[in-house]
Amino acid sequence: MYRFHPVVHWTNGYPNRKQIVSQVKELWKKYGLEEKTSFDTKVEKVYKDEDGRWIINDPEYGRFDGVIAAIGTCGDPKMPTLPGQEHFKGEIWHSSQLDGKSAKGKKVVIIGGGASAVEALEFVADTNAEHTTVLAGSEKWIIPRNPFVDILLVLNIFGSETIFSWIPEGILRLFFYRDLYDLSPPHNSGKGIFTETPMVNSAVLDMIRAGKASWLRGDTNSYDPRGTSLSFTQRARGVPKSGPGSEKHIDADIVIMATGYKWPSLSFLPSEVFVEPYDPPNWYLQVFPPSHPSLCATNCTYVNVIGTVGNYHIGIYTRFLLMSLVDPLARPHGWWMQR
Q1: What range does the record give for the signal peptide (predicted)?
Q2: In the listed set 261, 280, 307, which residue is the last one of a domain according to the structure?
Q3: Is 242 found in the same domain as 152?
Q4: Is the separation of the CB atoms in 302 and 281 below 8 Å?
Q5: What is the chain's Cα-based Rg?
Q6: Would 89 be classed as within a structural domain?
Q7: Tens digit of pLDDT for each residue in 145-165?
Q8: CA-CA distance, 335 to 29, in Å (whole number)?
Q9: Structural domain boundaries enclosing 280
């Protein structure tokens, strides 16, 4: 799925850093990009000259017809601290620091209930942890990693919640969640499947059914003074954050903070692309600012979405940009980009 060029081939579904770097280097050398690459160069501003060509920081780097901002949505890791953390006798990792780690035979607690938590759960399962407990603050949708199901979901042409969204939600609860339907967002909670980005994973619920993992909903309060567990308030389905619940102490040898990342800044772009109401993500196809159609911020502005990922949208949007640069008649008019 995450192939960024036709000659790229991964040995598994989630390539590690070594594989990714090796493929990037191979393409980089194949197309002679050594002379066209500037390392250790912070992009501070992007602007146009009097002829409408783009300048990156300074004219010494050249002038360009188009710009692709590909900084993604994951910047520095968010690493919040909890009261009593200094007493914890085990290890605390961020979900971005799992390469080379092992949780074999350990009791693991994962704090967070999003995509990072699911990836961390897969990691500890692969390293044969004794048991894993996910402490999630709220309910989030999980959908199966099945092309047929995922294609059906993205066929929603409105791209948002509709009066018929209860149909796919009900089908997921009935056939995918089944006995674990309590983990899905409750009816009328405002968390429809098209209101947030769901997690795509077919193994999580099976791990819970097999007793390898527990998924608890509630508020993580603090580390126990003994340094061997965490204090957690488990809430019933539908109870809001900080609402009433039962107090639990969750034993842990390892705590994984699946708390996400800070959003990388697009502040180097021209100020006019941030003028309301056409500020990101309210751009054409979410990646082309109406005021500058020769600028493409691929995979930088998404907030919540069900759609194509990886090489699909990267390749398609790059082709849109190239097409509009080569043939100005193919470039959408600013008025239509704002509709």
Answers
A1: none
A2: 261
A3: yes
A4: yes
A5: 23
A6: yes
A7: 877 777 777 777 776 778 888
A8: 41
A9: 38-73+264-338
* pLDDT at position 307 over 70: no
Tell me: pLDDT of 325 over 80.
Answer: yes
pTM greater than the 0.85 cutoff: no
Q: How far apart are the first and last CA of the chain?
A: 31
pLDDT of residue 311: 67
Contact status, residue 171 vs residue 193, Cβ threshold 8 Å: no
Phi/psi of residue 94, each to 5°? -85, 155
Q: Within 188-300, where are the H helices?
A: 204-209
DSSP structural state of residue 227: S
Q: Which residues contact 44 (CB under 8 A, 6 or more apart)?
A: 57, 268
Spatial contact of 300 and 193, defined as CB atoms under 8 Å apart: no
Residue 212, judged by CB atoms within 10 A of its CB (0-12, 13-18, 19+), counts as middle
pLDDT digits (tens, 9 = 90+) for 220-230: 999 999 999 99
* Residues 302 and 328 grouped into a single domain: yes
Distance from C-alpha of 193 to C-alpha of 169, rounded to nearest angstrom:
7
What would the mean pLDDT of 95-104 be, rounded to a whole number?
Answer: 90
As a whole number of angstroms, the distance between CA 333 and CA 297 comes to 18
Q: Check whether residue 104 and residue 240 sit in a common domain.
A: yes
Q: Is the pLDDT of residue 45 over 90?
A: yes
3-class secondary-structure state, position 154: helix
Please report which confidence band the pLDDT of residue 198 belongs to, taking 50, 70 and 90 as the band edges.
confident
Residue 13 pLDDT class (50, 70, 90 cuts) = low
Contact between residue 220 and residue 232 where contact means Cβ atoms under 8 Å apart:
yes
Q: Counting beta carbons within 10 angstroms of the beta carbon of residue 304, is it exposed (0 to 12), middle (13 to 18) or buried (19 or more)?
A: exposed
Q: Are 305 and 326 in contact (CB under 8 A)?
A: no
Residue in 1, 27, 305 with CA at minimum distance from that of residue 153: 305
- Residue 62 — very low, low, confident or very high, per pLDDT cuts 50/70/90? very high
Are 47 and 270 within 8 A, CB to CB? yes
> Is the N-terminal amide bond of 281 cis, ω within 30° of 0?
yes
User: CA 297, CA 294: separation in Å to the nearest integer?
Assistant: 10
Averaged pLDDT of the chain:
87
